[in-house]
Amino acid sequence: MPAKVEQFGLFIDGKWVTPPGSKRFETVNPATREPVGSFIAGTAGDAEAAVSAAAKAFPAWRDMPAPQRGEILLEIARRMKAAKPALGKVVTQEMGKVISEGLGDVQEAIDFLEYMAGEGRRLAGETIPSELRSKFCMTIRQPKGVVVCITPWNFPTAIPNWKMAAALICGNSIVFKPASSTSRCGAEVVKIYAEAGLPPGVVNLVTGSGGTVGNALVSDPRVRTVSFTGGVETGREVYVRGAQGLKMVHLELGGKNPIILMDDADLDLALDGVLFGAFGTAGQRCTATSRLIVHTKVYDRFLGMLTDRLARFPVGDPLDPKTGMGPVASADQERKVLEYIEVGKKEAKLRYGGKKLAGGAYDRGYFLEPTIFETKHGTRISKEEIFGPVLSVIRVNDYEEAVRVANDVEYGLSSAIYTRDVNRAFTAIHDLEAGITYINAPTIGAEVQLPFGGIKNTGNGGREAGSVAIEEFTEIKSVFVDFSSKLQKAQIDTERMA
Ligand code: UN1
Q1: What burial letters (b/e) apply to 21-30, b meaning 16+ CB within 10 Å?
Q2: Which residues share a beta bridge with 10?
Q3: Is the whole-model pTM more than 0.85?
Q4: Per residue in 169-191, is it b (16+ CB within 10 Å) or e — as a string?
Q5: Ligand 1 pocket: which of 444, 449, 463, 464 to mutate (most atoms within 8 A of CB)
Q6: Does residue 444 have its Cβ closer than 6 Å to ligand 1?
Q7: Angle at 108 between CA 461 and CA 364, to 5 degrees
Q8: Cα–Cα distance measured from residue 22 to residue 35, given in angstroms and rounded to the nearest whole number
Q9: Where are the alpha helices (DSSP H) in 262-361?
Q10: Which helix (H) or strand (E) holds 165?
Q11: Max intra-chain CA distance, the chain
Q12: What share of the chain is helix, strand, coil (3-state, %, to 5)?
């Protein structure tokens, strides 16, 4: 008999609660199909209660000096460090990424908490000269109020922390809705927040579906800002719904990220990069390398190197440190990726993989082969986001064609070029239409102290992480202090210049 599955409540106003009559759902380990936790399928009423708690907690949290809020973030970071081995394992068990990446997910959360704790001693406005004498002008930052964070399953501890640490340091209170399939990770993160001394109501957790909980949160008039990471279709719905209430909606959506491999590249270096970029997190990152655009002079040689290496690339138990790639995250994911593989087989040449893995432990989970298609640019698999371990390889004749192909997609998140030519590298930084460009490194692995986000259908212009993360969570107030002791009229008292 498997051990009884741990049950989690909602976290509202500083307490774990099970509202009467609640229904439950379980999350599932994609490597074994064993349950990972049991969670409440939140209702619109639960969402409303969480927003009420956040609204009530907001004024006192806003008025706490920002460096003191930073102290609490540091305490959360300390506790998360202590919990890292256990939490990293939960990430792997609930989402399927290999354990080194599960631990990396948690490390990214810790890094950002520490980074944002320091922001408590900055949160800088500007001082700006007045056109009048004896008048002082400045801007200050103020929190927005109640912020809703809706997060995806692929970085189930890192992304919630990107959003929550930034929102909190600015003085906002939060309602957090994690992706249903990684509710355990969300709940474990909130447990750590709660134990670190956050006042009740400052962070609230409502698990459940986007259609019910997400919609209710985004529609609530007391919510001023929504920060959403996920798919383009849902993102568009969230944006439209938020627009009705004239809310600020921050969106981080898809990608179709290219690596350009030039004929002068270090091919061994590129080989490691392509493997990590395409098959890290089983290709389920919005920054995943899903297109490899290769100069014709090195095309055959590099593809040979890649397929040779894949033949020795271990897919299996994500908790085993020797495993290169674990399962995809869910039955849904498996179905979607296999559908794309069928599309690919019709429109392109399958060069490697393409099958669901079967036999032994594979039969218990959602394991797919790492898959490579050789394709012309313009096929569906070369343009649509697959979000799985499927790489489209495209042959090009020169740099100009490579950039044209790289840019001709609806997304613009991450991009990369491997070349030893410094002029070419800088030209590519200018030419590639993306929020992120890597030189001689794959498209994944952004660091928290740099802004993260993209152009085109990847988002709506905002960035998270980095110091700019505070932009989406603060209002700017312009302040004019007239110490002339007389009425001075801007734009009218122009003789001042005399
Ligand atoms: C995402 O896939 O949504 O740059 C975020 C990276 C990670 C974050 C990815 N640090 O790949």
Answers
A1: ebeebebbbb
A2: 17
A3: yes
A4: bbbbbbbbbbbbbbbbbbbbbbb
A5: 444
A6: yes
A7: 105
A8: 19
A9: 267-279, 296-310, 331-347
A10: helix 158-169
A11: 90
A12: 40, 20, 35
What gap in Å lies between CA 100 and CA 321, rounded to an integer? 7
How far, in Å, is the centroid of ligand 1 from the Cα of 16? 30
Nearest to 189 by CA among 223, 165, 215: 165
- Contact 445 CB / ligand 1 (< 6 Å): yes
With residue 244 as reference, give the H or E element that holds it: helix 232-244
Q: Mind spelling out the 3-state secondary structure of 422-434?
A: HHHHHHHHHHCCC
Distance CA 103, CA 246 (A): 38
Beta-sheet strand order (sheet of 135-143)? 127-128, 135-143, 474-482
Question: Which tokens sit at 119?
Answer: 């922001």
Residue type (1 letter), 88: G
**Residues 339, 185, 156, CA angle at the centre, nearest 5°?**
50
Please state, in angstroms and rounded to a whole number, the distance separating the CA atoms of residues 371 and 383: 16
289 Cα: distance to centroid of ligand 1 (angstroms)? 11
Q: Which two tokens stand for residue 202?
A: 């400052």
The CA distance from 483 to 422, in Å, is 55
Residues labelled as active-site residues: 252, 286
- Walk along the chain (498 residues) and give the pLDDT tens digit of each residue: 456 899 999 999 999 999 999 999 999 999 999 999 999 999 999 999 999 999 999 999 999 999 999 999 999 999 999 999 999 999 999 999 999 999 999 999 999 999 999 999 999 999 999 999 999 999 999 999 999 999 999 999 999 999 999 999 999 999 999 999 999 999 999 999 999 999 999 999 999 999 999 999 999 999 999 999 999 999 999 999 999 999 999 999 999 999 999 999 999 999 999 999 999 999 999 999 999 999 999 999 999 999 999 999 999 999 999 999 999 999 999 999 999 999 999 999 999 999 999 999 999 999 999 999 999 999 999 999 999 999 999 999 999 999 999 999 999 999 999 999 999 999 999 999 999 999 999 999 999 999 999 999 999 999 999 999 999 999 999 999 999 999 999 999 876 554
CB of 287 closer than 6 angstroms to any ligand 1 atom: yes
How many Å separate Cα 194 from the centre of its chain?
22
Q: Give dist(CA 108, CA 425) in Å, integer.
A: 28
Q: Which residues contact 312 (CB under 8 A, 6 or more apart)?
A: none
